[in-house]
Design a protein that fits this description.
It is a single chain. The chain has about 180 residues and is an all-alpha fold. Helix content is about 95%, strand content about 0%. It contains five helices and no strands. The protein is elongated.
């Protein structure tokens, strides 16, 4: 769909199409590189927090009798609650960061598009009706492309977030092969 829309833009006005494509591509690229380290760091912490959660649950299930005998139920509940709160915050940060570019890009797009319309209206020898179909076509096609671009960014952020879990599994598989 992106290629069809981009081809349509190239057919209508190649300069605006190329500038628009470069602007969108550079925006997402900058946002990706700025957030890549943060997303990776959050992914590593999330993986270790999942591991800690599993450990707490496993210990509480395996040592159920000891927990009841020594009356340390509250300790396990407290640890699990803290771990789950931390995990919830980490997942929320990761998901928020993965969808943030869409909203920032939409705001920038609306501001630029509004400025473009004002510029076209303010031209002294311009006929606004003449440019209206082109403006509507650009606006509609660009707005339809935003979810596709956001999907690409969101999935790449998800991959960066989960790469540490993949590395742990890969290392475990390599270690099991050696035995």
């Amino acid at each position: 769909i992106i290629l069809i829309v981009f081809s349509f833009f190239l057919y209508i006005n190649y300069k605006i199409a190329l500038y628009g494509f470069l602007f969108g591509f550079i925006f997402y690229l900058i946002f990706y590189f700025i957030s890549k380290d943060f997303i990776s760091r959050v992914g590593k912490i999330t993986t270790s927090t999942y591991k800690l959660k599993q450990q707490i649950v496993t210990e509480s299930l395996n040592g159920y009798k000891e927990i009841k005998i020594y009356n340390i139920t509250e300790k396990f509940i407290y640890e699990l609650r803290n771990t789950l709160n931390k995990l919830t915050k980490l997942v929320a940060h990761s998901r928020t960061l993965s969808i943030l570019p869409r909203y920032v890009f939409e705001i920038i797009f609306i501001i630029i598009f509004g400025s473009f319309i004002v510029f076209v209206i303010d031209l002294k020898n311009s006929n606004f009706e003449k440019h209206l179909p082109f403006i509507v076509a650009i606006f509609f096609a660009s707005y339809r492309m935003l979810p596709l671009l956001q999907s690409i960014f969101s999935h790449s952020a998800e991959i960066n977030s989960n790469i540490s879990a993949f590395e742990i599994i890969k290392n475990d598989l390599v270690l099991n092969k050696q035995f």
